[in-house]
Structure formats: structure tokens, C-alpha cells
Amino acid sequence: MFRSLFRPLPFLRLTLALAACGASPAPAFFGATRHDVTLQGIRFAVLEKDGRAEVIRLDYLSLRDRDRVPALMVEAAERTTGCRVKRPARGIGRSPSLPGDTGEARFELDCPGA
After folding, report:
1. Cα–Cα distance measured from residue 67 to residue 7, given in angstroms and rounded to the nearest whole number
2. Radius of gyration (Cα) for the chain, nearest Å?
């Protein structure tokens, strides 16, 4: 009986190891170009693909520190891609997060020459 308690440990270790890998893209962003940027002390990963960007906040923030994050996400996408953010992504590529979530966002981009 004692051994059966520890059988889930290999699965748990694998899960924790994968979770520690950092930002992982949504399936629509597999193969995307990744850019890392720090703005006002907050780290972001920006994934760029097919005229769209996914921005993932990498740092923990308290609730009161999150108010500035949506504007910083737009800035992160624009600085790293060289494109202008047109609007939040729509359709199937839209961000599934609840309104007000500051963990990730997806945008449609307006890129020069595209």
C-alpha cells in the first residue's frame, strides 16, 4: 500500500518540469518567432506569426500592479515586431482569457510591407 502512494510521483515530476519551461504558445502560434522584452521591470514573451502576436507576461504581479499591464502588452508587441497593433485578435485566434486578464493577450498586427 505504501508504494501505491508514490506511483504518481514520476507524472508529477514531469508536469512540474514542463511547467517550469516558461511561456508556451497557443497551438496557433507553434513555430512562431519569439521575442523577449522587459518593460518597466516586467518580462514579456512575444510570439509573432502570420500578422498576429501573442504576448505572455512572465512575471508574477500583485493585483494592484496589474493595471499598467494591458498597455505594456501592446507596447511589447509593437516594439518587438516592428508592427502596429490594429486590435485584439478576433475569431478563433482571439484570446480565451477573461476580460481584464493580464497574463496573456493576442493581437492582430499591421506590419509595414505586408
Report:
1. 43
2. 17
